[in-house]
Fold:
Amino acid sequence: MFRKIDDRTYASPQITVADVAEAKALGIAVIINNRPEDESDDQTPGAAIEAAARAAGIAYHAIPVTHAGFAAWQVEAMRKALDEAGDQPVLAYCRSGTRSTLLWALAEAAAGRNPSRIAAGAAGAGYDITPVRAQVDMLAAQAG
Structure:
């Protein structure tokens, strides 16, 4: 269920409280929720995931992303959450994992990472960054 997109980052569809134990077993240090609350009736509330994460000693961040797109504050918040983890594994989730992967790609580009490597990492996990590729290229160029 958790798809590895780079050496330390996983993206996933919606997780449950029980999935937090799997994250802990993988050594996940930070869980990032990119799903707005009440997006669908079947999603586990962020507060429940947060409580389970904190009980397991995992940091938790909510950076909700709607289908309207990405804002600079979301990219910065994702970058900070990734930086907080250092070299420890991170799990980001949303409904399908796509928004989490796209936001990760933007945050990595803002940190000056290579856009082709970002795209390759996402593709290796089954995600396509084409919808944000122009932004990824721009952010990487600005950071470089």
Observations:
- The chain has six helices and five strands.
- The chain has a mean pLDDT of 97.
